[in-house]
Specification:
Helix content: 40-55%
Strand content: 15-25%
CATH superfamily of the largest domain: Reverse transcriptase/Diguanylate cyclase domain
Distance between the termini: 37 Å
Structural class: alpha/beta
CATH architecture of the largest domain: 2-Layer Sandwich
Number of helices: 11
Shape: globular
Amino acid sequence: MSLKRILVVITDEETGKLAETTLQLDGYSVIRVTDALNALEYARLNKPDLVIVDIDMPRMEGLTLNRRIRHDREIHFVPIIMLTSARTHPEDRIAGLKLGADDYLLKPFVPQDLSIKVSRLIIRGEEHRAFSPLTRLPGNYALEAEITKRIESRKPFAACYFDLDDFRQFNDHYGYEQGDRVLRFLSMIISGAQNQWGNKGDFLAHLGGDDFVLVTAQDKVKAICDQVIHEFNHIIPDYYEEHDRKSGFITVLSRKGESRKFPLMTISVAVAPNENSSIKHYAQLLDILNEMKHYAKKQPGSVWVKDRRQQTITKE
């Protein structure tokens, strides 16, 4: 099993180092940042298993970071521990809990107290993420167990990582309710393609947001990916309003207030085959899939790409 990742967002060097050292000794992988804006971006990109936030920080104080995490569709589920000082008003701690923090710890803290709170929330987070509440598909931990089992069996397989292009902008424009409809639609067409072309033992997981992974046989990849791309391209315009459909794009304001145009969504699929048992562990597979996903997103339109060592590009 891969190490659980903890994001520590603490400005004070001494406190931050104590938290980092404590968690590393407990066996966690720790990333420590001192800037809340960088922390938010890291959390979106890397999906940590838990975030520890100091309530008092420059640029974006801890309560604001809590609120932004809880309102971000991709990372809203991540457990949060607030660090507060004895001087902090009780009202601030209550506000933090109302904004979505799962627990708080007073500074200066006892390392054992931090260890206990982190362990408890990690276990609770695993239970919550066993299945996606939106699609009812297995989540991250079930996928890791499935991949580990297949690697240990030394039987060939392929993992297909489905990811939508410009989905965040669609959410910003139409709202999360409409975005959820798109995710349920995507889940349906992947499941449909799997049922039509795949094998009985195939495994589909929803990792959160617009990220889905299908584990199947290598000779089934082309038929499944081609069908998903075809159905997605054919139906996704129906989720846009008529004037956006006709123009072929939506106009979205950036966080800086700048107006930008984004085309109708497409889908990128990264494929990592495990030929000759070349993949040794789950983290290695994720690295390959992420590399191929970034490559796929640079291609125009909806595409599926295979690991570059045996590369295939198919587009529509």
